[in-house]
Structure formats: structure tokens, C-alpha cells
Amino acid sequence: MKPLVAIVGRPNVGKSTFFNRMLGERVAVVEDLPGTTRDRLYGDTDWNGREFTLIDTGGLDLGDDIPVGQVGLTGQPGNIMKLVQAQAELAIEEADVIVFMVDARAGITVADEEVADLLRRTRKPVILAANKADNAARRLDAVEFYSLGLGEPIVISSIQGTGTGDLLDLIVEALPPEEEETEEEDEDVIRIAIIGRPNVGKSSLLNAILGVERAIVSDIPGTTRDAFDTEIQFKGKKLVLIDTAG
Ligand SMILES: Nc1nc2c(ncn2[C@@H]2O[C@H](COP(=O)(O)OP(=O)(O)O)[C@@H](O)[C@H]2O)c(=O)[nH]1
Ligand SMILES: [Mg+2]
Questions:
Q1: 190 φ/ψ angles, rounded to the nearest 5 degrees
Q2: Residue 210 within any structural domain of the chain
Q3: 162 Cβ contact partners less than 8 Å away, ≥ 6 residues apart
Q4: Residue 205's closest CA among 221, 67, 213?
């Protein structure tokens, strides 16, 4: 299985825009309305030769988020908290690397702080990405996200593509070490089991394929004691024939 990289963050920060940019097509729905991504979307991609699966988290119809300064005036934005938190918790559980996306144009919001509180508690790598930093002024403003306690934000514009390469470099660096692939995975072995009731000719078929008396053939039902595997090359492919007992 490929490592999982989840993009979390409150609605409308640009998660789906980044996801689509990576997958090279419009897979996720991008809209001006917050909460447009209905479900979690998974897409396989690669960068610098490392493959991983990107997850666009969404599915949260939340309405507008409340800027930090307005809490207390407008009361607790209960729903958005619960849902964005749930999304972040799922990512913490499931993902190998978490990209926490915030909006450099909007600045820090309450939902950002709540998610940051959760993410600071995980040991999994968290990369803070300040999106919508489309110009120099915004790139400078983005330093305020440092106060979320998740390190220095990587400043990007998903629409322009600036900084996205650096973000991907960081993602790839944070991935768990590449697994040693097993022989099966790497050579695409096809395993064929020969099954049927005793004495129908399973071993004879196997022998005919192999051209050698590999399996013990007998007229007595049940002579093939155990299932056993024989590896052959056929048209450049590795096949494993499994002669089953019984
Ligand atoms: N200016 C600007 N707008 C962006 C950028 N990335 C996304 N957007 C816009 O932000 C809105 C929400 O984007 P979306 O990807 O749906 O956000 P999501 O809810 O986090 O998935 C859309 O109108 C996007 O076009 C960016 O880098 N710069
Ligand atoms: Mg979305």
C-alpha cells in the first residue's frame, strides 16, 4: 500500500484546488462555496519518484467560519468545530503525513486554531501550508500562522502553482521509508490454483503443462498429499501453479 497524505483544513482554504493540481485533472469539485467537497477523495500521485496517495478531506457542509476576533460576539461556532475536528482526527489516525492547509488571505480563524490544537498532539509529521499567498504582500502576511505552533508555514498558491513544488518536497521527505517490495508485488506473479474433486486429473493437467512428472500422479484418489506450488515462466510472465490435494 502506498503511504497516505491527508490534506486537512477548514472549508474553502483551497484543499481541493491543490488536490486537483496534483492529480492533473479536476477530480475534486472546487467552488467558492465552503464545504463543496462532499466526501473524502483519494488519488494516487508521485513526486521525485516517490508514490503516495493524496486524500482530499471534505464532506463538511459547514457554512461560514468565524474569524478569531469575532468569537464572543457571535458565540461558539459549534458545528464547524466538531466537523473540522472530526476530519482532522480521522487524518491523524489514517494518514502517514498530514498537510494542514490554511488561508493566507483570510488569516487565522477559530477553526484553524482548533485543528492546530489537535495536530500539535500527534507524532505524525504535520506540514503547515499557507495557501492563497498569490503575491508578495500575502507571502509576508503568512508568517502569522507561525503562532499556530506547528512550525514555519510553507507559503503556496495552489492556483498559480508557486511554492507547491517545495510543499511536495517536504511531503516526500516526511514519508515513511520506502517498503522493500515483496517478490509477488514487484514481479506481478499470477497464481493459478488447480482445484476439483479427487481423481479428475488435476495433477495430470499440471504435469502436462510442465512437461515433467512433477506431481505424483496416481489412480488412487487423494494421492496428492498437499497443495504444492510450481513456478514456471510463460510468455515472459511468472506463473505459479498450485496443485491442490483432494
Ligand atoms: N486566490 C486564490 N484562490 C484560491 C487558491 N486556491 C484555491 N483558491 C480558491 O478558493 C476557493 C475554495 O477552493 P477549494 O479548493 O474548493 O477549497 P476547499 O474547500 O479547501 O477544498 C475556490 O474559489 C478556489 O478557486 C489560491 O492559491 N489563490
Ligand atoms: Mg474541497
A1: -100, 125
A2: yes
A3: 133, 134, 156
A4: 213
Which of 10, 23, 30, 101 best tests ligand 1's pocket when mutated (most atoms within 8 Å of CB)? 30
Expressed in angstroms and rounded, the spacing between residue 17 Cα and the centre of ligand 1 is: 6
Across 116-144, b (16+ Cβ under 10 Å) vs e yields bebbeeeebbbbbbbbbbbeeebbebbee
Q: Are strands 41-47 and 50-56 parallel, antiparallel or unpaired?
A: antiparallel
How many domains would you assign to the chain?
2
pLDDT tens, position by position, 40-94? 678 889 999 999 999 888 644 444 555 554 443 334 455 666 777 777 888 888 8
**Measured distance CA(169)–CA(50) in Å, rounded:** 10
What atom of ligand 1 comes closest to residue 19's alpha carbon?
15
| 131-184 residue pLDDT tens | 999 999 999 999 999 999 999 999 999 999 999 999 999 999 999 998 765 555
Structural domain that includes position 59? 4-174
Strands (E), the chain: 4-8, 41-47, 50-56, 97-103, 126-131, 154-155, 190-194, 228-234, 237-243
Residue 109's CATH number:
3.40.50.300
